């Protein structure tokens, strides 16, 4: 699929963008003058977990930005990952908390600035994980416990790749899969299956899910035998399903994926971009801010971005015909 085709698909998704609030911008007066910064801002979130509660979970973050910037900031949740990119391209959202592929797309397609990337417990990359409720089939060794969760095939090392020799056993299984825009829920695990010799259109039964926690729950509830997600999405549902770490076993990890981060639209002045970047980075360095960001996307800190690291996920998407 060409970039133009991908953009068209994303535009269709954008038509279904679920907004809980709208941003308005003040028009520039006189063509020679640059456009004024907007009178309010919209922060776009992708549905990596339950959409219904994500805006409420992010409210302390948007409240902080409102106070720090002196203008209202409203959180929205897109219907899918690509819709968030298109929201930024259309200037319907000016701040985006986006996965690595969407950071690259927002920059490449719409000139957005990638200003921050996340750290999770000191790590700037993460693997996608293969999960199962049938460890007897997929585990070549006895599952081991780490932090109350079970792993096998060396996946307890918490760094990818690991256990990929076992994924050929996924053939014939029901698999919980996120949309094609998700690096961890689709791109990297699907590419790993293809590299293992599977035809992912005919060799597995794809069970579509909209978010990482839904993938975990599909495996937990038995709706799928295998699921994909970022590491370790089991933590998201542990509060409601305290035995999830025992019932859902991680048996393989993909290659490492660049962490998600924050992009800002090119319509914002350099001064406002700097204010937003500083406010977010400073907030992430506080105990309160780190706790809020952890509750939203398991983020422990926001650090200056290195946009050059994002090309590997774009290359992976290209191998699947998504670019």
Which characteristics define this entry?
5-stranded mixed beta sheet, alpha/beta, 12 helices, 37% helix, 323 residues, D-Maltodextrin-Binding Protein, domain 2
Notes on the protein architecture:
- By secondary structure, this protein is α/β, with parallel strands linked by helices.
- It has two domains: 3-122 and 259-319, Periplasmic binding protein-like II (D-Maltodextrin-Binding Protein, domain 2, 3-Layer(aba) Sandwich); 125-258, D-Maltodextrin-Binding Protein, domain 2 (3-Layer(aba) Sandwich), CATH 3.40.190.10.
- 37% of the residues lie in helices and 20% in strands.
- It contains twelve helices and 13 strands.
- The protein has helices spanning 3-14, 51-69, 81-89, 100-110, 135-138, 183-195, 212-220, 234-237, 244-247, 270-284, 287-297, 311-319, and strands at residues 41-45, 73-77, 95-98, 113-119, 125-132, 144-146, 149-151, 174-177, 205-208, 226-230, 249-258, 261-264, 301-304.
- It has a six-stranded mixed β-sheet, with helices on both faces. Strands 9-8-10-5-11 form a five-stranded mixed β-sheet, sandwiched between helices.
- Helix 4 packs across helix 12.
- The longest helix is centred in the N-terminal third of the chain and has 19 residues, at 51-69.
- Belongs to the phosphate/phosphite/phosphonate binding protein family.
- This is Phosphate/phosphite/phosphonate ABC transporter substrate-binding protein.
- It comes from Cryobacterium arcticum.
- One of its GO terms (biological process) is transmembrane transport.
- Residues 1-27 form the signal peptide.
């Amino acid at each position: 699929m060409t970039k133009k085709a991908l953009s068209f698909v994303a535009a269709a998704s954008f038509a279904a963008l679920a907004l809980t609030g709208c941003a308005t911008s003040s028009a520039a007066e006189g063509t020679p003058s640059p456009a004024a910064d907007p009178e309010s801002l919209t922060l776009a979130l992708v549905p990596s977990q339950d959409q219904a509660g994500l805006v409420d979970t992010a409210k302390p973050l948007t409240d902080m930005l409102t106070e720090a910037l002196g203008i209202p900031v409203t959180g929205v949740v897109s219907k899918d990952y690509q819709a968030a990119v298109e929201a930024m391209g259309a200037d319907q959202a000016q701040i985006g908390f986006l996965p690595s592929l969407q950071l690259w797309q927002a920059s490449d397609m719409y000139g957005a600035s990638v200003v921050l990337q996340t750290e999770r417990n000191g790590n700037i990359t993460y693997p996608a994980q293969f999960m199962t409720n049938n460890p007897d089939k997929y585990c070549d060794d006895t599952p081991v416990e780490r932090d109350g969760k079970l792993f096998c095939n060396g996946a307890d090392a918490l760094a990818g790749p690991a256990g990929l020799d076992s994924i050929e056993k996924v053939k014939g299984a029901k698999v919980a899969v996120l949309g094609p825009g998700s690096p961890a829920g689709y791109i990297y695990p699907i590419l790993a299956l293809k590299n293992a010799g599977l035809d992912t259109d005919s060799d597995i039964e794809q069970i579509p899910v909209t978010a990482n926690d839904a993938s975990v729950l599909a495996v937990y509830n038995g709706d799928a035998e295998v699921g994909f997600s970022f590491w370790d999405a089991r933590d998201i549902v542990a509060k409601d399903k305290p035995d999830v770490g025992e019932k859902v076993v991680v048996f393989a990890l993909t290659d490492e994926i660049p962490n998600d981060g924050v992009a800002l639209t090119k319509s914002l002045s350099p001064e406002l971009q700097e204010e937003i970047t500083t406010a977010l980075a400073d907030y992430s360095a506080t105990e309160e801010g780190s706790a809020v960001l952890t509750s939203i996307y398991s983020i422990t800190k926001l650090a200056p971005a290195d946009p050059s690291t994002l090309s590997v996920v774009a290359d992976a998407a290209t191998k699947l015909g998504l670019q």
